[in-house]
């Protein structure tokens, strides 16, 4: 019998939360070189990331490295009016941050900091689990699936790249019709790629 999505979420969240602070730190440093090896990174200027929570791979060292190389970083914010959708706001060292309804850190909403999703070069997405086919299992809210859906199967718009610890890989995931597979997933040890 295959595991349900909820069972997989629970199992993988426990696995990544069991990583020691040294393992988390090492993974966050190794992630920087893996991300920098992506062919799309050289030309990318507007990059969406997120602030890690619940044992996710720590993105702060990567964010700081990208700031240092002159890239602009944007973070997701839950859309205040369009239910289930995300906005992306510029994140700078001076940005004011707050907690959203899920307890996740995001920038305080400011109209002038918003970038249209279509103008992002890369969206690095969080995920709970992934499989060898590029399927991504998130927390179940569907925010990233809705964000990426308009660009699926097109050559324009942002490239979506998943970020995960190596322990978040499973052999295969149960999927739903709305799930959007990723073409690339980066872990601290390697880059996974699939054809579109």
TrEMBL record:
Belongs to the 5-formyltetrahydrofolate cyclo-ligase family. It catalyses: (6S)-5-formyl-5,6,7,8-tetrahydrofolate + ATP = (6R)-5,10-methenyltetrahydrofolate + ADP + phosphate. Keywords: ATP-binding, Ligase, Magnesium, Metal-binding, Nucleotide-binding. Substrate binds at residues 51, 56. It is an enzyme of class 6 (ligase). The lineage of its organism: Bacteria, Pseudomonadati, Pseudomonadota, Gammaproteobacteria, Vibrionales. ATP binds at residues 5-9, 136-144. Its cofactor is Mg(2+). The keyword Transcription does not apply. This is 5-formyltetrahydrofolate cyclo-ligase. Transmembrane segments: none annotated. It comes from Vibrio astriarenae. GO terms for molecular function: 5-formyltetrahydrofolate cyclo-ligase activity; ATP binding; metal ion binding. The keyword Iron-sulfur does not apply. GO terms for biological process: folic acid-containing compound biosynthetic process; tetrahydrofolate interconversion. Its EC number is 6.3.3.2. It comes from the Bacteria. InterPro entries: FTHF_cligase, FTHF_cligase-like_sf, NagB/RpiA_transferase-like. Pfam families: 5-FTHF_cyc-lig.
């Amino acid at each position: 019998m295959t595991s349900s999505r909820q069972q997989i979420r629970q199992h993988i969240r426990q696995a990544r939360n069991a990583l020691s602070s040294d393992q988390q730190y090492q993974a966050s440093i190794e992630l920087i070189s893996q991300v920098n090896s992506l062919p799309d990174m050289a030309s990318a200027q507007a990059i969406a990331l997120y602030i890690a929570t619940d044992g996710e791979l720590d993105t702060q060292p990567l964010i700081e490295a990208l700031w240092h190389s002159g890239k602009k970083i944007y973070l997701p914010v839950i859309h205040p009016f369009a239910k289930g959708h995300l906005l992306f706001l510029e994140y700078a060292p001076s940005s004011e941050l707050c907690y959203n309804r899920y307890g996740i850190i995001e920038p305080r909403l400011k109209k002038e900091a918003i970038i249209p999703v279509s103008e992002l070069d890369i969206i690095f997405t969080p995920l709970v689990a992934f499989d060898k086919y590029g399927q991504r299992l998130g927390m179940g809210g569907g925010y990233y699936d809705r964000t990426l859906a308009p660009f699926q199967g097109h050559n324009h718009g942002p490239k979506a790249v998943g970020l995960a610890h190596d322990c978040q890989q499973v052999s295969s995931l149960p999927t739903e019709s709305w799930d959007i597979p990723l073409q690339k997933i980066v872990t601290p040890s390697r880059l996974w790629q699939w054809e579109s």
